[in-house]
Input
Amino acid sequence: MRSTSFRLAVVGMALTLFVGVSACSSDDSSASATSDESTTTEQARSGTDSAALEPSGSGCAAVPASGAGSFAGMAQDPAATAASNNPALSTLVAAVKAAGLVDTLNGAGPFTIFAPANTAFEKIPTDTLNGVLADQATLTKILTLHVISGSKMSSADLEKAGTATTVEGEELTFGTDGGALTVNGANAVCMDVPTANATVHIIDSVLMPQA
Output
C-alpha cells in the first residue's frame, strides 16, 4: 500500500445560528450559542480536549524537559515535526521519512498516534529492521497500523472505546495494565502527549499487521 493512497479528508462542521426576539439579546445569545455549539461539536469529533491532557508514564522521563522536543514544544508542532524534535523517537522519524509519510502526519488530522520508542525498534533484529526500512510498501503498512484518523483520543478515550480501526485498516484493542494503556498488548510508556494535530501515546513495542 503506497503512502499516496492515504489522503485524509478534512471534516467540516456546521454551525447553527440562533435568532432572538430583540436585536441586542439576539446578538449576545447567538454568539454564546454558536461558541458553545462549536466547542461541543469539536470535542465530539476530536475526543478529549488536548489542552487538558497531562502526559504520564514511566517513559515520559526520556522526553526533554525544555526546547522543541519537550511536551510544551511538541504541543506547538504537527505530529511528524514534533517527533523529529524528540530524541526518544529518532528511529520512528527515520521510518516515517523512509515511508514518505511526513506530509501525511503533518496534515490537518486530527490523529491518534501510537509512537514506538527507540527501544521498541531495538527489539527487532537489525537485519529485519533494515529490510523493512528498505521496503516502502511494508513499512507504510506497519506505520499506518499505528495511526487512527479523525480524532485525538486520550488514553481514557481509548480504554473506554475498547477497540478502534487504524488507517491501515486493522482494528486495535485497548486495555490497561497497572493503570497504563495497552495497545494490542504493547504498553504505553508515555501516554497523552499532545501535538498540534494529534494525541500521541509512546509505546514499548512496534505493532505488526496480522497479514
The domain at 47-203 is CATH 2.30.180.10 (FAS1 domain).
